[in-house]
Amino acid sequence: MAKSPDNHRKSSPFKWWSKILLILGLCILVGGCQFQPPTTEGVINLTLWHGINPPPNRDVFQKLVDRFNQDHPHIQVEALYIGQPDQQMPKILTAVVGNAPPDILWYTPIITGQLVELDAIKPIQDWLNNSPVKAEIDPALWTGMELENQIWSVPMATNNTAIFYRPSLFAAAGIETIPSTWSEFRETAAKLTAAGEKYGIVLPLGKGEWTVFTWLPFMYSAGGELVRNGEANLVNPGAIAALEFWSNLIEDGSAILSAPERGYEQDNFISGRVAMQITGPWTLGYLDQIGIDYGVFPIPAENQQAAVVGGENLWVMKTTPDREKAALEFLEYVVGSEFQTEWSLGTGYLPINLKTRLDPRYQEYVAKQPALNVFLQQMNWAVSRPNIAGYSRISENLGRAIEATLLGQSPQSALKASQNRLRLAL
């Protein structure tokens, strides 16, 4: 485990200036240094940093935070939006090194390893073992909470990706059966394609996490293993097969590429230019508002069914015992069925709480939005992305291999090049 800045045996003027610059950077990035708010006697004021978007989801979260504050007068949580996830890491790391972290942090679990190396977060296994909410957490989410035989976070929201499709375009192409295997999917995409006019699917071009997140289910379906014995393992048969599959869709003329790093945009799907797109349940409400026809089916399988867990977790940052205890009280509220039911009904995220999934209100909601059943079913075989400290570098280099393959490079050479870059970086 890497040492924190305070563990150096000797200080130098350079290190002192580095700390000063980091703190100044924090002030600039976050819009003013985050000194702890004034404390009313008997009240603990906590700050929570998040990047919840779109704004309607942020409003749902704020209402639930307000409810917690009303019911817990001794704890007052201030939820601060600090930008989209890709904008947050410099702020988070600067805050940690500058000794000005929030009390609670919201982010995807893939940064757990970095936070552990920085000694920035409180392990919460002992607390969770004594909490009634432990038994209510979806077992598929435990891997994303764990690292080095310790629990570091709790899930707040979860999802996974599936294939959205346009039933009207399937009918026009004479397709009556939903594809469930790679070979069936490739045939279906070809039938939906009219060169230069319509295409079977849009694939995400780019090397960012969105591209990696949407591609990983295919690698896992082919038996791929991204990390082996704690080390990056990019050149593996499953990864090669998954890249070949996407490459074949391009070579067939059945797929078009998104704009760079814009693979989540749905303009071509909505217009009918493409018949299928990989995305998640957060788009259901938007598509309903637009009023187009659509359906959802699971990620097609090669060797086995696969899906990858998305969503965000909450960490308790290391501060003081009283503040950490108060933060854990908020985490227990978030994991509980009351919060999870309101959050899921208001945002479309899948509930991480098993009791919520049995709640009559949620079951009624799913009955009105049956596409959610696909995502709920996929949680039975969904896996988490590795949350080791080097995941960001692994993801970046894997993304570069995916992008290179979609632009014409052979899968094996693209993966080897990325593995070599990664070896040098690490």
TrEMBL record:
Pfam family, one: SBP_bac_8
Alphabetical list of InterPro entries matching this protein: SBP
Keyword Signal: yes
Source domain of life: Bacteria
Record's keyword terms, sorted: Signal, Transport
SUPFAM superfamilies according to UniProt: Periplasmic binding protein-like II
PROSITE patterns: PROKAR_LIPOPROTEIN
Membership in a protein family: Belongs to the bacterial solute-binding protein 1 family.
PANTHER family per record: MALTOSE-BINDING PERIPLASMIC PROTEIN, MALTOSE_MALTODEXTRIN-BINDING PERIPLASMIC PROTEIN
Protein name per the record: Sugar ABC transporter solute-binding protein
Record organism: Limnospira platensis NIES-46
